């Protein structure tokens, strides 16, 4: 479990500021959802937290350590993308173990960890298959599994369900919520789907044009939206 703090975080692409001073304090074990329209900066923010994109200004701290200059692999995070990003030529088992082999984890410990995570995500029968032989929902379970085996302090999800059909999306929402209850990790979940935000979050950050319009619990935003944008996006109609 970890605390994540953003202080006046900024990002400029070619002279254009796309993240305009974001402050957030995400508590230990919190399930925090970033929600906002397409292009508002959700993915950019997540990439800066993970270290995949350098920040143009401000500070990111994990457990009180400023990580601006810490390499992505050393931040203790794992990211799950919309596009799964599985290795097509490897089996599910190899996809799960790949990162761990790089960390020099003993073979027996890897096998045990994979067995445990495969059971948790109900992908045991799929371990011998290649990603091409899986359905969309199964692939997303494997992508989540690959993050889980690394035992990250913080999970980052970037619209992980947006490629799935509506029914499967609802099922996977429940799956991710169960995972959070079971592991207790801090999780940041990006979506443009208000329903997903309202049903999954402990805290929601509503983003618009590179700024946080409001940060609070779902009911707080629903009952007391800070402005008309939040009201229109998430709050009760007034
Ligand atoms: P979201 O994930 O909320 O849809 P993004 O974080 O992907 O939004 O993008 C935020 C803004 O930054 C958009 O205006 C987008 O065009 C711009 N942007 C994102 N990545 C790049 C990049 N690599 N180069 C230039 N502009 C970018
Ligand atoms: Mg995005």
Tag the structure with descriptive keywords:
238 residues, alpha/beta, binds adenosine-5'-diphosphate, binds magnesium ion
Strand count? 10
Q: What is the helix tally? A: 8
Radius of gyration based on Cα positions: 18 Å
The main sheet comes to: 6 strands, mixed
Strand order of the largest sheet: 6-7-8-3-9-10
Low-pLDDT windows of residues: none
Strand-and-helix sequence, N→C?
Answer: EEEHEEEHHHEHEHEEHH
Small molecules bound: adenosine-5'-diphosphate, magnesium ion
Helix content: 25-40%
Could you tell me how far the N terminus lies from the C terminus, measured between alpha carbons in angstroms? 38 Å
Q: What percent strand? A: 25-35%
The backbone outline, from C-alpha atoms, is globular
What does this structure look like?
This protein has about 240 residues and is of the alpha/beta class. The chain has helices at about 40-50, 90-100, 105-120, 135-150, 165-185, 195-200, 220-225, 230-235, and strands at about 5-15, 15-25, 30-35, 55-60, 65, 75-80, 155-160, 185-190, 205-210, 210-215. Helices cover about 35% and strands about 25% of the residues. The strands form two sheets. The protein has a six-stranded mixed sheet with strand order 6-7-8-3-9-10, sandwiched between helices. Helix 5 links the parallel strand 7 (about 155-160) and strand 8. Helix 2 packs across helix 3 (about 105-120) and helix 3 (about 105-120) crosses helix 4 (about 135-150). It starts with a strand and ends in a 5-residue tail after the last helix. The relative contact order is 0.19. The mean pLDDT is about 90. Bound molecules: adenosine-5'-diphosphate and magnesium ion. Adenosine-5'-diphosphate binds near residues 13, 36, 39 and 41. Magnesium ion binds near residues 42 and 43. Its main location: membrane. Its EC number is 3.6.3.-. It is found in: Cell inner membrane.
């Amino acid at each position: 479990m970890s605390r994540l703090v953003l202080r006046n975080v900024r990002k400029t692409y070619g002279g254009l500021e796309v993240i305009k001073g974001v402050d957030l304090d995400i508590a230990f074990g919190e399930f925090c959802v970033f929600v906002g329209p397409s292009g508002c900066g959700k993915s950019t923010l997540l990439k800066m937290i993970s270290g995949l994109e350098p920040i143009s200004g401000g500070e990111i701290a994990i457990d009180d350590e400023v990580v601006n200059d810490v390499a992505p692999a050393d931040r203790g995070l794992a990211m799950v993308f919309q596009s799964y990003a599985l290795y097509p030529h490897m089996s599910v088992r190899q996809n799960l173990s790949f990162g761990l082999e790089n960390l020099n984890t003993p073979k027996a410990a890897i096998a045990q960890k994979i067995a445990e995570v495969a059971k948790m995500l109900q992908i045991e029968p799929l371990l011998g298959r290649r990603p091409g032989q899986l359905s969309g929902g199964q692939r997303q379970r494997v992508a989540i599994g690959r993050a889980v085996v690394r035992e990250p302090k913080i999970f980052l999800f970037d619209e992980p369900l947006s490629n799935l059909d509506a029914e499967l999306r609802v099922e996977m929402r429940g799956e991710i919520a169960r995972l959070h209850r079971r592991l207790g990790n801090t999780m940041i979940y990006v979506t443009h789907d208000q329903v997903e935000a309202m049903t999954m979050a402990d805290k929601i950050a509503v983003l618009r044009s590179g700024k946080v319009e409001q940060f609070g619990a779902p009911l707080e935003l629903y009952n007391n939206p800070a402005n008309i944008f939040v009201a229109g996006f998430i709050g009760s109609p007034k």
